[in-house]
Amino acid sequence: MKTNFRSMITALAILFSFSFQASADASVVVDRVVAVVNGEIITLSDLQREEAIRKAEGKQDERLLLEDMIDRKLQMAQAKRAGLDVSDKEVSEAIADIKKRNSFDDKQFEAAIAKEGLTIEQYRKELLEQMTLSRTFNKFVRSAVAVDEAEVKAYYDRNIKLYTEPEEIRVRQIFFRYPGNATPAQKREVQDRAAAALERARKGEDFTRLVRELSEGETAALDGDLGFMQRDQAVPEIAEATRGLRPGEIAGPIEAAGGLNIIRLEEVRSRVRPFSAVKDEITKMLYEQKVENSYRTWLQTLRTDANIENKL
Question: What's this model's pTM, rounded to 2 decimal places?
Fold first, then answer.
């Protein structure tokens, strides 16, 4: 059996947004018992009504819906044993709040739920159940779950790659532009100038000074500094040429972007999002995991202690 952890919360949200739908099937159906939970029955018509309610969530598996209904009966019984019943006054207050938030008067409210196929009494009954389920969930599941900072930090340390941004490179270039519609002779002249620049750079001349003296194009004004960029965002030929370089090393001439490039890899960095920036995100994720696991364990305990007959 696969328990739908979010079914209770989803059902509560459906109630509060008036998303209940009555079955449009006018045919006569002979009712029968599809499940018995500690002596309480669930009928086929109950199940069909549940299917109508869940249409807003998309197609539902009938057997899973019945299992969910069984789980809700078990939780309602647990609520009764624990004295967590919701009073009529509390239901009335909840309805008053719903009307206020939706700017409904009594007639508008009745019309809204009638449009969804519900009478006032039916709506009150459904709302009472969902309020009780929510209270019971908070009592037996949420209240028992906590996540401390040590757990959060341990998860961060174990999964540091999840919080490491893609590697970035910083490149400085000397650029030699090919003339428009360059002849072979013109290209050779540019190649000779690039080769001479590469030789000077490899002999140890200051690379930034060479950029100022020789480079063409827009980046010359920035001393050839292309800034930090993710490797896959760089010009492909330059990105590939940097893969075999260590910071401070030079490569070229590289034909790209309408000319030849002499490049020096300035820096490589992999930025890690600090713990302080992701702490809340990890805490929320771990908390939700714990709540779900606790909920499943609690439901299994309720089922183990119950007498359940599934007749579907």
Answer: 0.64
